[in-house]
Write a structure and sequence with these properties.
It is a single chain. About 20% of the residues lie in helices and about 40% in strands. It is of the alpha+beta class. The chain has one domain: Alpha-D-Glucose-1,6-Bisphosphate, Chain A, domain 4 (2-Layer Sandwich). Strands 1, 2, 3, 4, 5, 6, 7, 8 and 9 form a nine-stranded antiparallel β-sheet that branches. β8 and β9 form a beta hairpin.
Length: about 140
C-alpha cells in the first residue's frame, strides 16, 4: 500500500482558519509516531523543532512557527503543539489495518501564514519517507471519455 492524502478541508471563522487532512501512511503507528513527536522526525518532513519536551505541558519551539507547549499527548496516538504565532497543530494517529496508519491532522491558526497546498507538500514529503510518492486515484472525467 502506498500513502495517500485525502482532500484537505479548510474552514474560516473570523480570522481563525482550520485545516483538516487525513493522510494514509503505509507503516504501523509505532513507526509513524516518531515522525510527528521527535526533533529528528519533524525535521525530516515538516520543520525543525529547536525545543521538544515529549510530554503534556512540555515546551516546544518549531522553527518559523514559534514557541509554546504540548497541549495534548497520548503516547502512540495524539500529539498536539500550540505555539505562539503558529496556532494549534494536532496529529492523531489511528490504526489502518495491520500495517498502516491513518493520520488525522488539524491546524488551527490566525492570519494567512499557512495553506492547504503548503501542508499537502509537507505530507507528500512524509509519505516519501515511507517508501515513495502517493498513489493518486484516477478521477473519472465524463468530459474526457
Amino acid at each position: 500500500m502506498s500513502g495517500s492524502i485525502e482532500q484537505g478541508t479548510s474552514q474560516t471563522h473570523g480570522n481563525t482558519h482550520i485545516l483538516h487532512f487525513r493522510v494514509r501512511l503505509p507503516r504501523p503507528m509505532e513507526r509513524v509516531w516518531p515522525t510527528v513527536t521527535t526533533r529528528e522526525g519533524l525535521a525530516g518532513w515538516f520543520t525543525e523543532a529547536e525545543v521538544l519536551e515529549p510530554r503534556l505541558g512540555g515546551a516546544v519551539t518549531l522553527r518559523d512557527l514559534g514557541s509554546g507547549q504540548i497541549t495534548a499527548w497520548d503516547v502512540d496516538r495524539v500529539a498536539e503543539y500550540t505555539v505562539e504565532g503558529g496556532g494549534r497543530i494536532r496529529f492523531h494517529l489511528e490504526r489502518d489495518g495491520d500495517a498502516a496508519t491513518s493520520l488525522r491532522f488539524t491546524h488551527e491558526f490566525q492570519g494567512e501564514g499557512e495553506s492547504e497546498a503548503r501542508w499537502r507538500a509537507r505530507f507528500e514529503r512524509l509519505i516519501d519517507q515511507f517508501g515513495g510518492p502517493a498513489q493518486r486515484p484516477a478521477v473519472h472525467d465524463p468530459g474526457r471519455c
